[in-house]
Amino acid sequence: MAAYTLVAATMPGDLLSAVKWAKAGSKFTGFLASFAVFGALGFRLVRLRMQDWLRTMESDTAIVIGPAFQRVDHRAAAIGEIGACLLVVEFAMIVWRNMAASHGDMFAAVQLADSEDYAQLILAPGLIIAFWLAAKGHRGGWKAALVLGGALAIRHLVTGRWRALINPLHGASAALWLGTLFVIVVAALPVIMKEPVTRATLGSLVAGLMARFSPLALFSAGFVGLSGLLTSWLHLKYFAALWTTPYGRVLIIKLVFVACILVMGALNWRRVLPKLGTVEGAGTLRRASWWELVFTLIVLVVTAVLVSMPSPKLPA
C-alpha cells in the first residue's frame, strides 16, 4: 500500500483518471506471483550450479553446510508455492473485476476471462503441488516446477499471436533476475550467515553463491532491456506519445525507477561483488540488495498501473 501511495502521489490528476485501479490491482498480484514462482525456480538453477563446488569443500564443513542448503531449498520452494497460490488469487480478482461488465453474473464473468488467464489457472494447481513436493525434499517436485514454470512463461501462445509473447517473456525475465535476488536475500543469506563455520568459509559461501547468480542476472537483465524497448515501442506507436499521452508519462516514471535498479545493480557488480569473501562484504551485499528490491517493488506498482491504461492511438 505504501508503494501505491508513493506512485499515486507522483501522478497528476489526468494520469490518475486514466488508471483502471481494479485491473492494476489484479496485475500487481500477478506480478508478485510471477516474481515468487520464477524467483524460486531461478534460485534452484543457481543451487544446481553450486552442487559440484560444494562437494569440493572439506568434509567437516560439508557436513554442516549440506543441511543448511537443504533448509534454503525448502524456503525457496515455499516462496514458489505462495507465488503459485497468488496465480489463483489473480484469476479470482479478474473474475471479480468482470462482474461489473456481466451485471453480477458469475458464469458470464468467468467466460470474459482471456485464454491466457485460463491457461494460468490450469497451470497453477500443478505448480502448487510441484513446489509442495519440492518443499518436502522430493527432487521430482523441482523438475515438475521447472517444466510448469516454462509453460507459464509462454502461456500467451494459446492466443495464437506471437506478438503477444513479448510481454510475458519480458516479465518472466525480470522475475527470474530480481525474483531470484529476492529469494537469495530473504531465504538463503539469513540461513547461511548463521551457520557455525569460520568467517572465511562463510564469506566464501556467499561469494560462491553470488558468482553463480551473476550470469543468470546479467543474461536476464539484458533480455529485460531489449524486450522492454520492443514492448514500449509496440505500445507507444510513435515517439511523441512518450510525453504527450498519459501512458507515455507513466512509462517515463517507470523508466526512472528502472534506471535506479540498473545503477544499483551495476554498483553492486563493480564494487560490492569483488569485495565478497568476507563476512563484512556479505553484510554490505545484503543491505545493498534490499535497496534494489525496494525499487523493484515500486517498479511493479508502476507497471501494474501502466498495463491498466489504454495504449496511445496513432494521431489521425
Count of alpha and pi helical runs: 12
Helical percentage: over 70%
Structural class: mainly alpha
End-to-end Cα distance, whole Å, is: 39 Å
Write a short abstract of this structure.
With 316 residues, the chain is mainly alpha-helical. The protein has helices at residues 2-9, 13-17, 21-55, 59-98, 106-111, 115-135, 139-153, 166-192, 199-236, 241-244, 246-272, 279-307.
Q: What does this entry look like structurally?
A:
The protein has 316 residues and is mainly alpha-helical. It has 12 helices and no strands. The longest helix has 40 residues, at 59-98. The mean pLDDT is 82.
Core attributes:
316 residues; 0% strand; mainly alpha; globular
Topology:
Layout (H helix, E strand, L loop, with lengths): L1 H8 L3 H5 L3 H35 L3 H40 L7 H6 L3 H21 L3 H15 L12 H27 L6 H38 L4 H4 L1 H27 L6 H29 L9
Helix pairs in contact: 1-12, 3-4, 3-7, 3-8, 3-9, 3-12, 4-6, 4-8, 6-7, 8-9, 8-12, 9-12, 11-12
